[in-house]
Amino acid sequence: MVSICIPTYNGSAFLRQCLDSALAQVDVDLEVVVLDDASQDGTGEIVQEYAQHDRRVRFHRNSETLGSVGNRNRCIELARGEWIKPLFQDNYLAPDCVASMLRCLRPGILLGVVKRNNIFEAEVPVDYRQGYERYVSEHTLPRRFGNRAVITPDAFAAHVAHYPVSNCIGEPTATLIHRSAFEQFGFFNPYLIQLSDWEYAARVAVHTGLCYLDEPLATIRIHWNSATARNYAHRRYRADVIDPLVILHDLVYGERYASVRTAARRSNPRINLRHRLISSGRQARWEAHSRSADEDGAKALAEWERAVARYPRIAALLPGYVVAAAWNRVKRYLRLQPG
User: Fold this and answer.
1) What percent of the chain has pLDDT over 90?
2) CB 92 within 8 A of CB 149
3) Could you tell me where the DSSP H helices lie in the chain?
4) What is d(CA 1, CA 110) in angstroms, rounded to the nearest whole number?
5) 2-233: which CATH number, 3.30.70.100, 1.10.3720.10, 3.90.550.10, 3.90.226.10?
6) Residues facing residue 93 across a β-bridge
7) Tens digits of per-residue pLDDT, 41-56?
8) Are the C-beta atoms of residues 192 and 243 closer than 8 Å to each other?
9) Average pLDDT, the chain
10) What does the alpha-carbon distance between residue 267 and residue 122 come to, in Å, rounded to a whole number?
11) CA-CA distance, 29 to 230, in Å (whole number)?
12) Which pLDDT band, with edges at 50, 70 and 90, does 231 fall under?
């Protein structure tokens, strides 16, 4: 059985289309698990209506708000299926999405990914839309791996070493994950507000690889009330600076990313992830302190201090780093000189 997991919060605007697409899946035994994170709109009433008419819908409600990632993790815990199909409340699936993804999987691979289609609501600013489309076009699995339907763990670990914070997989709606992945590798990191999707998919893929289906069977709706848009508008430093820094920290120190460190050492030229972390940490600290005089800067400084409290190593200076960095600059300078 496949569990389509829909974590919701004040999602009444688009939830019916989401639920309809989940229940319209063909050729698959499924349940639809909806977890409402103490919404204040009509989300609960909508789901209860569907549950009354279709026994495949299981509705749960949190007594208090867990937050986006916490709610997502709890929704997965409630699922009973062998495969977990995340589906966000403002997204929807083609009728053959789940069945097609199941067919493309290979034994031993715990992660399936499908090409996604993006639609934009009218209120999304033009500059945000253009930036989003540019990012998605630059970071895709076909662009990084060619036409491969199966990407090995070693190949993906090498990719992460080169592009540690560039999401070429997409949102969870574009993925299908075996239950055992959560048992082996844990759940989504609730500390991350923007890159938890990418970090978790990468965490699984560097161990088991992934299967990719190059058909646009999942649709991602971009609107100005989404969590991503809110982060873009109100928590830019947190999303753009701290999240990438935390991922670099995990790549350097996390036990689940040993294969990425091996790939970095074997790369030619060698990739020094630790020096990259230190450089990013110094830049993040400088940005937070340099903007601390205004309101947004004060928020950034508070975000930096919270991150350091949780991940102290991001503020540490590696012995010899300054000398090594200076020597690397000298070598780059010498390579640029004529003769």
Assistant:
1) 82
2) no
3) 15-23, 43-53, 68-78, 97-104, 126-138, 141-145, 153-162, 179-185, 196-208, 227-234, 236-237, 243-253, 258-266, 273-290, 295-310, 321-336
4) 15
5) 3.90.550.10
6) 218
7) 999 999 999 999 999 9
8) yes
9) 92
10) 44
11) 36
12) confident
Domain extent listing, the chain: 2-233, 236-336
Confidence (pLDDT) at 225: 80
Q: How many CB atoms lie within 10 A of CB 120?
A: 17
DSSP per residue, 88-154: -TT-EE-TTHHHHHHHH--TT--EEEEEEEEEE-TTS-HHHHHHHHHHHHHS-HHHHHTT-SEE-HH
Structure token digits, residue 249: 């920290």
Residue that has been written with the tokens 């076009």 in this structure: 137
Strands 210-222 and 150-151: antiparallel
**Terminal alpha carbon distance of the chain:** 66
The torsion angle over the Cα atoms of residues 211, 248, 192 and 136, rounded to 10 degrees, is -50
Pair 184, 85: CB distance under 8 Å: no
The two three-digit tokens of residue 137, written as one number: 């076009």
Sign of the dihedral defined by the CA atoms of residues 327, 333, 336, 338, in that order: negative
Query: Are the CB atoms for 39 and 10 separated by under 8 Å?
Result: yes
Written as one letter, the residue type at 19 is L
Q: Are the C-beta atoms of 231 and 193 separated by less than 8 Å?
A: yes
User: Looking at residues 27-40, what average pLDDT do you find?
Assistant: 96
**pTM score of the predicted model:** 0.90
Is residue 4 packed enough to be buried (19+ CB in 10 Å), middle (13-18) or exposed (0-12)? buried
Find where tokens 């997965």 sit.
76
Dist CA 91 CA 334 (whole Å): 52
> Is residue 212 helix, strand or coil?
strand
Cross-strand bridge partners of residue 119: 221
| Strand 111-120, strand 210-222: pairing | parallel
Coil vs helix vs strand at 6: strand
pLDDT at 337: 63
Q: Which residue has the tokens 């993804």?
A: 101
